[in-house]
Hints:
Layout: H1 3-33, H2 36-61, H3 76-105, H4 112-133, H5 139-165, H6 172-200, H7 210-218, E1 223-233, E2 239-247, H8 253-269, E3 274-281
Parallel strand pairs: 2-3
Antiparallel strand pairs: 1-2
Helix pairs in contact: 1-2, 1-4, 2-3, 2-5, 3-5, 3-6, 4-5, 5-6
Amino acid sequence: MSHDHHHASQNLKTAFWLNFLFSIAEAVVGILTNSNAVLSDALHDFGDSLSIAFAWFMQKLSGKTRSDHFSYGYRRFSLLAAFFNTAILSAGMVYVFFRAIPRLANPEPVHVEGMAILGVITILINYIAYRRVHKGKSYNEKSISWHLLEDILGGVLLLVVSLVMMFYPLYILDSLLSIVFATFILYNVLNLLIRISKIFLQSIPENVKLEDLEKEMISTSYVKSVHDMHVWSLDGEYHILTAHVVIDPNISLQNALETKCSIKQKIHEAGIDHATIEIEREGEDCDFIHC
């Protein structure tokens, strides 16, 4: 397992235990105080813990090497977890809309002191977990960081609403701020979901330009042209390239091998992690039917 994969796994592990233990503590407090609001938030945080646990498991699995069934290894299992968790979070934000909008017309009283205390604790716990995962490079960590940011903003929402309502009974504020923060989260999460979907559809990685790669390859000695080039990403971090490279027909086998090595070195520096180069001599018929 690479250092990045191990680091990502450790970050998700920390985030899981923080959320899980906090959700248990919340449930105990909710039972002791007979508070449905606290119990509901405990259930929400427990659901987040399950999402993080799934992400953690898939992140560990993604570090496995290739097998007879998965020739590229298991790296995309991490991306699969990111897709599911992002989709779940999107659905959760839609649910917030359905709960908040009707309450704009009929705002309901809330227990402000309990909300304030819960808001502070929620912010602290989730911020610690968020700090561990938000700088991660994997889409798995990015998806979980949005789960945690949603919880942080939820805590801020609880705190702000409760402080205001200690002095002014503006119960509609709870629903208004819920809609604002749900809109912000949903916008960013849907963008992340689109980016993940593009990887599954094997689009060209965001940080790679085919034109620049082709120029680098053609600038290599003895290379005449490049065609049938394809670039995609396994998980948003590990990029793959295949290409047909046409070379001078008069060079030796040794020169051809050196040319291929030089090309691979150049494209590796440009962000390609795995390359398959098919060498063709100028004038050679490359129709795939005859190859």
